[in-house]
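Thread title: Can someone regenerate the structure for this chain?

I was given the following input by a collaborator and told the matching structure tokens would be attached. They weren't. Posting the sequence so someone can regenerate them.
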Amino acid sequence: MIKALVLAALLVASPVLAQAHEVKAGDLTLKHPHMRASMGMSPTTAGYVVIENGGNSDERLVSAACACAKMVMIHQTEIKNAMASMKALDGLNIPAGGTAQLAPGGAHLMIMGLKAPVKAGTIVNMTLTFAKAGSVTVPFMVMDKAGGDMGGMPGMDHQPH
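Best answer:
Regenerated them for you:
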């Protein structure tokens, strides 16, 4: 309960945190950008976001970068014979009038070579580059777990993503 109240106060007091929830870039709306807090000194983490394309033409996420890491790649989790593996993608399509979801267990941003641990409750800016919309700086909220429940705050549940 106290955690939820503190987070609510931060969201009201900080426009940066409030803006982290949704970013618009032309016909694109990037919703719930967040990343998993790093575990100890692990040099990797993952980022997630829902990308809605309100335009009349397809768009494509072609790359991502972050000053916090040496490299960010678009990955896809695959399960074969009860074994999970990841493969790098050369991009991610966002259909006209449709949605692409980067989420745990599916396509995601693999953030590798962290220069320092990323801690829950902070904001990390990442640059997402699209074929048509160009480069967009997106503030990613760092959370203890992928999806996170934002302290049970209404409208802040990222679990479905």
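Residues 2-13 form the longest helix (12 residues).
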